[in-house]
Amino acid sequence: MKNSKFNAALNTNSVVSVDLYNVFIDSDILYKDPFFKNEFSDLLLKLAKDKKLTIYISAVVYEETLNNYKEIVSKEVAQLVKHQRNLSKLKQSDYYFKYISVENYEKEFVDFYQLMFSNGTFKILNYSNDVLPELVNRSIKRLKPFSDKKQEFRDGIIWLSIIEEIKSKGLSNNFFITNNIQDYYDEDKVSLHTSLIKDCSNILPFTSTKDFLLTHIDLSRLEVDFDFIKWLEEQNIDENYILKNIKDKTSDTLVEKFSIAVSDYVISYPDASNVAFFDIKIDIGSIKISEIQKRVIGTFAYLTCPVSLDFTANVLTPDLINRSFITQERGFKATCELNFYLHKESISLSNIIISLIIKN
Questions:
Q1: pLDDT tens per residue, range 173-214
Q2: How far apart are CA 231 and CA 202, in angstroms?
Q3: CA–CA dist 227, 220 (Å, integer)
Q4: Which residues contact 100 (CB under 8 A, 6 or more apart)?
Q5: Which of 25, 197, 213, 228 minimizes the number of CB atoms within 10 Å of its CB?
Q6: Eight-state DSSP code of residue 141
Q7: pTM of the predicted model, to two decimals?
């Protein structure tokens, strides 16, 4: 019952079909989304619950994520208490504080993960003292994931527990989702470091859950919400639709994410490392959108929009003669890609990837 209009969006012949995958997740991924609430994290969780893949979490990753979660909650609660005290000074009558317990948040975290471990959605990777000699050896010899810059026993424990699980269980279709570029990746920031490949050659790294799912999961074979597809058919999703939503709903987010994308773009060019862009202003009227690509993923659509736009920015460059900095407002043209999450109720800008910036 799939409408031909969306066959192209659903057809992903370039990726393999959903099979029993083994997905190992690092703590830097869980820090941002410990309850798997992001669209792609939620999809990964659903696949695990449907026994299409297994999510592995090292005991070290679990403890690190829990500690990080408690620190974040504690800071937020402290800020809330501070604001409530300030509000109490502005009220003539008695002000009653709403007590928020960090322990309640911790319990919710622990209960969630214990449920996932107990029902087999997650598998815990424990480690033994047997790995200590190898950890010491790698630390002394600066073998990955150790380096000259730092000694990360936690990374060593995580990595050794992963390869022990793969080798002892004879696992195939293995993936490691980690954004720890420095310790795990080669110079291309895509491939696993060559010395780690010697440890285990049948595991592929990804820097995000989204990249893993879009690259290695045949999303066309997932259960699709046909009511959503019917709704999507009725929407005229063209350049005007995207531009209207940018103006009405996501203009502030556009500037914020575009500023981040500009910084990432500048950092990628060593000769521009001393240049800084700030006070960026986007000319909304200059935005030109090419063909919009749609990919239906369960109950939402992932929209990819090639875009060109004009923007101005104050550019800070070093004045080597006077040993100071020069600030000039300049105009630029950018070629980039805008990615959106589209639900029935909302559209949100996921990220922006800039491929080219030139002066106007």
A1: 899 999 988 888 888 888 888 878 887 888 999 999 988 988
A2: 41
A3: 16
A4: 77, 80
A5: 197
A6: H
A7: 0.63
